[in-house]
Amino acid sequence: SIYTRTTDPFNPARVGEILRLVELGPDLAEAQRGEVRVMLSSYADIFALAVSEVTPVEGAVYAPKIPEDVKFSTKIHQRPLTQPQAVYLHQQVDILTEAGIIRPIHPRDVKCVSP
User: Which domain of life, per UniProt (predicted)?
Assistant: First the structure.
């Protein structure tokens, strides 16, 4: 597996995938391209190849201080999604949920909807 950021960040397959995904502009000479590839390889531990490889920052929690008596709009102003859009959106929500980035809540707990 190439998703080894936390267990083996310099796994050759992982480094190869990082190098494949990073696009280098045509304005670099071949020697410069080599230098950039070496640098990217040496910093492979900072790249996340999937959202599940993103590590949380300790103490970084979003906690807005909104007074209890404030009322926000909870009306959703959105056109219905097409079937392909809905499938894609649900897949992305599942990925973010599995990675622990978002969590499901009951609709009654929604306090604000952003347009």
Answer: Eukaryota
User: How far is Cα 113 from Cα 104, in angstroms, rounded to an integer?
Assistant: 15
> CA 89, 55, 107 angle in degrees (round to 5)?
40
Question: How many helices and strands in the chain, by DSSP H and E?
Answer: 3, 0
Query: What secondary structure letter does DSSP report for 5?
Result: T
C-alpha pair distances (Å), 111 with each of 67, 88, 97, 100, 114: 11, 25, 20, 21, 10
| Secondary structure letter of residue 31 according to DSSP | H
CA distance 41 to 11: 10
pLDDT, tens digit (0-9, with 9 covering 90-100), for 59-100: 888 888 888 888 887 777 788 999 999 999 999 999 999 988
Q: Where are the alpha helices (DSSP H) in 1-115?
A: 12-21, 30-42, 83-98
Considering the entire predicted model, what is its pTM? 0.69
Query: From CA 37, how far away is CA 115, in angstroms rounded?
Result: 41
